[in-house]
Write a structure and sequence with these properties.
Strand content: 25-35%
CATH class of the domain at 2-64: Alpha Beta
CATH architecture of the domain at 2-64: Roll
Number of helices: 3
């Protein structure tokens, strides 16, 4: 009987978003007091060297008292990204013709680039 109650609590309402190696699960669940809350689970597939695979999961619990602020912040962040970068995916993982802009050899380096470059030991790759 307890197992059936637990099963019913977990199956209140669910949606799945598949995104490449990631899958997002949105689940409405019930508290012991029979109030609802939301869980968002990210499941990411990893392949081992031997061809077997495993999943890593990360979960967020979101309660009703936080819905308004969470939704407002999420909307704000999504709007910011779309306003500044548009909807086109720019990534070497998503576009086979993606070319990262390279700094020309004769371009002046910033102070950060100069100081970080000088902190490395001189290495010669002639032996390789």
């Amino acid at each position: 009987m307890a197992d059936r109650d637990l099963y019913e609590q977990e199956e209140i309402y669910s949606k799945v978003v598949r995104a490449g190696r990631r899958t997002y699960f949105f689940d409405v669940r019930s508290t012991k007091a029979d109030d609802y809350y939301l869980t968002i689970t990210e499941s990411k597939k990893f392949t081992n060297d031997d061809g077997s695979f495993h999943f890593k999961k990360h979960k967020i619990y979101l309660y009703k008292e936080d819905f308004a602020e969470f939704t407002e912040t999420l909307d704000d962040m999504v709007s910011y990204v779309l306003k500044h970068k548009g909807e086109e995916v720019i990534s070497d993982r998503h576009q086979s013709d993606y070319k990262r802009e390279e700094t020309p050899v004769d371009a002046p380096q910033t102070e950060t680039e100069t100081s970080s470059a000088s902190s490395f030991t001189d290495v010669s790759f002639d032996d390789i």
